[in-house]
Structure formats: C-alpha cells, structure tokens
Amino acid sequence: MKLDRILPFARKLLMQAITDGDIVVDATTGNGHDTLYLTELVGETEHVYGFDIQEEAVKSTTARLKEHHFLNRATIVQKSHDSLQSEIPVSHQNKITAAIFNLGYLPGGNKEIVTKPETTIAAIEQLLKVMVPEGIIVLVIYHGHEEGALERDVLLDYVTKLDQQKAHVLNYRFLNQANNPPFIIAIEKR
Ligand SMILES: C[S@@+](CC[C@H](N)C(=O)[O-])C[C@H]1O[C@@H](n2cnc3c(N)ncnc32)[C@H](O)[C@@H]1O
Predict the structure, then answer these.
(1) Are 120 and 101 within 8 A, CB to CB?
(2) Residue 109 alpha carbon, nearest atom of ligand 1
(3) What residue's CA is closest to ligand 1, atom 23?
(4) How remote is the CA of residue 94 from the centroid of ligand 1, in Å?
(5) What is the mean predicted confidence (pLDDT) over 160-172?
C-alpha cells in the first residue's frame, strides 16, 4: 500500500466532505488549482467562495475557471480570508461544509506576500462559528520559509488548544522527509 501524499490527502478530505449542492471556501485561491477542483466537486447547484489578497491571484484563478466554463460556480473576492463572514451571504454561511487554506506565498509570485497566522486564525474562527457540524477545514502548512515556520508554530499552538468538545484536530505529516515538506492540519467542527 502507498500512503497518501500530502496534496492528494488534502483533496481526499475535501472530496469526502463535499457533495453536490454544498457551499465551500477556498481561503487562498492563488493560481486557482484548488478552486477549480472545488468547483468540480460542488457541481451545478452550489457555490465556491474564493479569497486572495493579490490581484494577480484573483486574475489567474478567474482565468482558470473561465477556461473550464466554471465561472458561474464561484465568487472570487480580492480580500483577506478573514472577511469571509462579511463577504459570504448569510443564507450560504451555514451551508459551508469544507474550506481549504493552502498557506504560504503564491507560486511564481512575490515570495514576500505570505499568509499570516493572525488572519488565518481569524478566518478559522469565523468558519467554526458558521459552518455545518462535521464541516472540515483543511490547512496545508508550508514551513520551508522563515515566515512559514513561524506560522506553523502559531497555528500548531492554536489548534492544539482548540476545545475538543468543539473540534477534532488531525495532523497528517511525514516525519522522516528532508527539506521541511508541507503537512496537513484538518479541523472537523463538532
Ligand atoms: C500557496 S498560495 C495558494 C495556492 C493555491 N491554492 C493554488 O492552487 O494555486 C497562497 C496564497 O495565499 C494568498 N494570501 C496571503 N494572505 C492572504 C489572506 N490574508 N487572505 C487570502 N489570501 C491570502 C497569497 O496571495 C497566495 O496567493
């Protein structure tokens, strides 16, 4: 048997959580690979909300969705993910079943623009408040760069202290690989 690698495992979690008609969140759209995957999972009937602070990322994600004729299944917002509660209509907020945060910097973009633990945590808190019970939040942590290592530590501290009555927290990580490969934290709202 081959163990799931990190990115396939993140997608497997999302696939298991999402069914046709759900509302889902891509909290860091970047070049739109995850957004496209999510639009395929939600189907015709419901919607993906995507967030990124960079115009370049929003353009790239929009172009990718357009190319695949899925633009109508998504709303891409050029704002920080911690504005999700004010950006997603209230009627959709309590239908959110999954969210993905692919942390770090935009591949091929400005490496100085990175996700920050304060806004990541603020967005997680909002999701935990509104999403459906058993909704899943998947964090892919890239800690090979200096700020990524800092973010990793703050996030691990935060999730470790989450009340177990409110959430189950999973850490999926290869322990013997060189060069700080990414790993997953998955949070299931109870
Ligand atoms: C690793 S990339 C995401 C890759 C993306 N999932 C893909 O498929 O290409 C991280 C992205 O997070 C974005 N970002 C940084 N801070 C953010 C914030 N506060 N809210 C939303 N996006 C943010 C960056 O601009 C960058 O595009």
Answers:
(1) yes
(2) 27
(3) 52
(4) 24
(5) 98
Separation of 57 CA from ligand 1 center, angstroms? Answer: 8
Substitution candidate for ligand 1 out of 36, 53, 138 with most atoms within 8 A of CB: 53
Q: If you compute the radius of gyration of the chain from its CA atoms, what whole number of angstroms results? A: 15
d(CA 97, CA 18): 6
Cα 132 from Cα 47, distance rounded (Å): 15
Query: Average pLDDT in the 19-35 region?
Result: 95
Residue appearing with tokens 């999973």: 170
For residue range 34-73, list pLDDT tens digits in order: 999 999 988 877 899 999 999 999 999 999 999 999 999 9
Q: Would you say 80 and 53 are in contact if contact means Cβ atoms under 8 Å apart?
A: yes
Q: Calculate ∠ Cα 174-99-84, nearest 5°.
A: 135
Token output for 163: 């009340």
Confidence of residue 20 (pLDDT cuts 50, 70, 90): confident
CA-closest residue to ligand 1 atom 26: 106
Confidence at residue 18, expressed as pLDDT on a 0 to 100 scale: 93
DSSP state of 15: H
CA pair distance 5, 26, nearest whole angstrom: 20
**Distance (Å, rounded) from C-alpha 142 to C-alpha 184?**
9
